[in-house]
Amino acid sequence: MFSNMKxxxxxxxxPLPEAxxxxxxxxxxxxxxxxxxxxxxxxxxxxxxxVLRVANSSFFGLxxxxxxxxxxxxxxxxxxxxxxxxxxxVASLKTCDFERIRGFWRHALATAIASRMLAGKVSPxxxxxxxxxxxxxxxxxxxxxxxxxxxxxxxxxAPQSPACIRAMEMEAIGVDHAAAGxxxxxxxxxxxxxxxxxxxxxxGDSFKDLGADGALMASTVATASSLAILAGFGCxxxxxxxxxxxxxxxxxxxxxxxxxVLEYLARAVRETEAVFEVPREKNCSKPPVPKENSSIxxxxxxxxxxxxxxxxxxxxxxxxxxxxxxxxxxxxxxxxAGIEASPRPDASVFDLDSFVSERGFNGFEHTNLLxxxxxxxxxxx
Length: 381
Known about the structure:
By secondary structure, the protein is mostly helical. About 55% of the residues lie in helices and about 5% in strands.
């Protein structure tokens, strides 16, 4: 990126509080004492007050009140304190009019929460790092909005897939939000791993230059972003494809755990918004919810895709039964309150192969999930 543009991006947003930047650098240093972290946080009374308020909220659910900054560091740990400080700092950027990018804050929060939950399976020691990477992954959009105003808002607010938004940004303004985010991360003196993930956090990016740890964090954040979209926190993104949800963390995170992440996100985002006192934003659209007592038999011809198909159906709110009849595979799906005996004599049959073919998708892994969810709900009604 041209140095002139890089300088403009780095100056586009207000600087993060000095205390937050220092804590971000200190949090993983084993030689830094609790007292030192508390001292740095206390140097910014406004930030310290926000952190204490959140520490004493239902967000953590502690049994006794935390009365001092040092006590908060002892009880919550340096990494949680760092994330609280960064969350409070990013939330304060609401003065930058980020409501013009519909759902930005909610998508950031949902991606952060989902990243931490997924990290519990793939890299539990670094789960707090994953939270921060998820929180900041789209921060470059705020810089571009500040720099280019309506020209960028038109791009950011147009429905698009995460895979194509960068191409649209380059065509419209000559720079994309991932590169802008990495420049901000560098300016804020974030550790290099965060700058790398800010630069490469979309599925389809080449993660090979990030190293094993960086590539795992980037693919986890990308999956978390897809789950956030599926949960309705989409920041104008169109729906992820099955491949976006199932393939990046294949053999590391099972679908049932992803379903639990989806179920947790709505409540967690709502509570987090409340404690950081940011304006409530409307959710983006969610997949149609299966009606109670719905039951459908889904047929598909490729047994090799059984796990992916059943997993995606679970993420759409259906409860799959066991596959039946190898070759032309059949499986009954029901809504959570539905009848689980399989197959029901009166269950409608949904031909998945025909659905994919008629809509011109390049295989099930590239199906539009909103279309699929709507078709299943209509048939199951």
